[in-house]
Structures are given as C-alpha cells and as structure tokens.
Amino acid sequence: MNAPEPAARDAIGIDPSPQPAPGATPPRTPLAARAAAEFVGTAALVAIVVGSGIQATQLTDDVALQLLANSTATVFGLGVLIVLLGPVSGAHFNPAVTLAEWWTARRGGAGVNARELAVYVPSQTVGAIAGAVLADAMFGAPLVKWSTHDRSAGNLLLGEVVATAGLILLIFGLARTDRLRFAPVAVASYIGAAYWFTSSTSFANPAVTIGRAFTDTFAGIAPASVPAFVGMQIIGAAVGLALVAVIFTRGRTDAG
C-alpha cells in the first residue's frame, strides 16, 4: 500500500514530522517546562509508591497482598504519568535514564545535553523528596521521618543492578527499534514485574531511592542503605547501555 500523501496524512491525524528518539524532547518545549514536568512526574511517582504502601499496610497484614497492592498502583500510576508528561520532558523521572541519555548524546546519539542534565537530575531528586513528604501528609504520618528499613544485603544490591539494567535495556531498545510509542505500557509493565522478580523490589531509580529515605513506611529505605543502592543503579545503567550496544547493533548497508 502506498504511503498517504501529505494532505491525507494531515486529514487522518498522522504527524509527518520526525519523532524524538531516546528521550529527546521537542525542541520548542522550554527547559523550565521540562524541569517542571520532571519535578511533578517524579513527585507523583513517589507519592504513588509511598502512599499505596501506607494504604496497603493499613488494610492488610499479609505482606504478599501489600506488595501486590503497591506494585499494581505503581504500574497504573507510572503508565499514566508517562502518557501525560512524556510529550513534554520525555518522562524520565529517573536520573539513571537521564544520565544514560546524556551519555548516548555525547557519543553522537539523541538525548539530553549537559545543561539539561544539570536541570533534570535536581528536579527529579527534589520532586522525589516532595512526593514522599506529600504521601506522609495525606496519611497523617510525620512529614519527614528517616526510614529504618535496612536494605544493605548483597543480594538486594544485585537485584538493583538487574532491575536498572533491564529498565535501560527496555527504554533504549524501544528507541533503537522505533517503538517508543509502547513505552507507557512497556515501562510500567516491566517495573510491575520487577517488583516481584528482583530481590530489591526494583527501585531502579536514584531519585526515588533518595525520596524513599524520607519516609519510615512500607516503601522506605534507611539512609545508610541509599549510597550503595544508588551506586548499584548507576552500574546497572552502564550494564543496560552495554547490552543495548550489543543487542541492537545497527548493521551497515551494502552501499555503506
């Protein structure tokens, strides 16, 4: 079937302009708007994670049901946030994703530049803290109470490497194969699955990890456990990028 003519494409709602690749955002979107989207999106994500954890522990003492409720809320909430804010900022909500994009941009790919990196990461981190405080406020808990949930075991750190590597592989694999339109469903589904198949319950996000240290609830993490978790997430991001390079290698054309 022949490709539709420009007028026909406009009539049926197909955007003929090139679409942004790995997380690159529309150039007309002001950086301030993108920073706001990253702040709000990360805050909402952490509020969903922490708030659903508090709600779950109030409704049942069954840990499996608590995790099921927590992961289900996160899947739906994350999917909605990506759909809503993806067109503005790329819906990173995660310094590991932003750092990975900055690295690919340095090597000639699409992604954020150093200035955008310097704006995105603080916005995500402050947003995560705000989201944890908001969740505690909604449920009448102390606004800031350091978590006492120790997560320092080696097997949990390995789980963070696996969770983050899989997330980066998924996002950049979708970008390499021109299927980022599936990101809201794919990314949310992966995080939901990783809640269950990783020992750490898949934080996979340095900003979220920092934010969750501010709440002594089901989803919290002790401040002493944060540096190792963040370090393993950065390592996982590097592993994920390496896997993308190996699996999604672009072959040369016969003419090239």
Concise overview:
This protein has 256 residues and is mostly helical. The protein has 9 helices and no strands.
Mean pLDDT: 89
Low-confidence stretches: 1-22, 252-256
**Rounded radius of gyration (Å):** 19 Å
CATH topology: Glycerol uptake facilitator protein
Q: Percentage of helical residues?
A: 55-70%
Fraction of residues in β-strands: under 5%
The CATH class name reads: Mainly Alpha
Largest sheet: none
C-alpha geometry: globular
Report how far apart the termini are. 28 Å
Q: How many strand units? A: 0
SSE string, helix = H, strand = E? HHHHHHHHH
Kindly name the structural category. Answer: mainly alpha
The number of helical runs is 9
The CATH architecture assignment turns out to be: Up-down Bundle
When the domains are counted, the total is 1
Name given to the CATH homologous superfamily: Glycerol uptake facilitator protein
